[in-house]
Amino acid sequence: MNEETIANPKTLNVMTCRVEDGLEVLSGKWKLKILMQIFKNPTVRFSVLQRAIPGITQKMLTKNLRELEAEDLIKRVVYPTVPPKVEYCLTEHGKELAPILDQLHYFGLKHRAYLEQKNRGEE
What we know:
Blueprint: H1 3-7, H2 9-26, H3 31-40, E1 43-45, H4 46-52, H5 58-70, E2 74-79, E3 85-90, H6 92-95, H7 98-122
Antiparallel strand pairs: 1-3, 2-3
């Protein structure tokens, strides 16, 4: 966002709306954690996700996976085996989140360091 964008309320309003669209897709306690696991393991099974994300219930994992699939960020692949084997992977659209998640991770690191330094200064 540059100074021209900030100076133009109409453009800023459109950008705000787009940011809200993006945040809506990723909002909630679990979606970013699920996506990070799928980024780390390009093809991952349900049980692996459930073990990798402490505190998530089977119901919440299923709900969030369905929502991410509906947004076309992940793909559910069912193999015709007994018992059924189901894997999740990123779609091409979902892979577009990689630089955003990298930047969010980087900001998180810097922000945590900033807060720790600030808290040390107040002691």
